[in-house]
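Input chain follows. Return structure tokens only.
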Amino acid sequence: MSGRIVYIDLAKAICIILVVVGHYCPPGCPGWWSAIVQFIYSFHMPLFMFASGFIYIATKKDGEKYSDFIVKKIRRLMVPYFVVSACIIGIKLITESHLYVQNPKTVMSFAKMFYYPEAGYFLWFIWALWWMFVIIPLFKTRLQRLALFAVSILLHFIPFVTTTIFCLEQFQNMLIFFMLGVVVYDWKELLSIFGKFPKMAYIATFAFAYLLSVSQVGTEYLAWIKYLLPILGIAAVVSLSKLIEHSKIPIDLFMITSNSSYIIYLFHTTFEGFAKALIFKIPYLSNISDGGMFLVGAVFVVACGVIIPIILNDKVFNRYSTTRILLGLK
């Protein structure tokens, strides 16, 4: 664990599991499952962006050349993006005549993936993160990065149309959370006062705010709460992660999941897709109107989306230099 920011690793593990859960929401699923997915979507990608910004600034190498940093990010982000996109599109083209395939593709999808997350919309995250890494090294001091954080707030809240090409719209909306992670680390001494509050208070505040946001009480007066939910969600998960870190709960599985989080993100929809195709061929499990059977199927789908990428990462991808290069592994 030496040199690791354990509670951030725990937060990443929690977040990637929530991502996998949130990406399984078939039409006609029970209302309670839709409610869970809606809850997850209120904060999970802002949390990922926050963690990315926090880790970036915490591990930043002083004096690293901009060109070297960009090449590293091309290898880490964009090479895996194109490799995985091509694989997903190819698999869908091959299997769609035999199995249920959500969002089928065409041969033109191979061209669209160069400017749009064609293989799966979830891949917008990689494009958005790429643009963040393109600009953040240009802001070399804490005050400059604080100024960029202020700009990111304006980009997030001032309404204007941004193109979805290269996921610039997502970059515009998510930069605020990446920069929040940067600023929290940059100014951690000044912000240490917030660590003195009980961690359960952050969790309870987020839960209360979320319940207010989905209730019908005072809707016209409480619409502003939705803007706070991502930040409150980040604070709640970070607080929960700190509680887990200092508890007697074994964290080995969390750390394994965190270490494989990028591979899980890249491949979870593929293995969720295979699991869904299998479920739809089993009479009892395909009956999603039965809450109990749906839950069994959902656990199976989510488990496939998390566990299979972890196994592949450990047993295959990290063992061969070719796969490490293609998937941006160290």
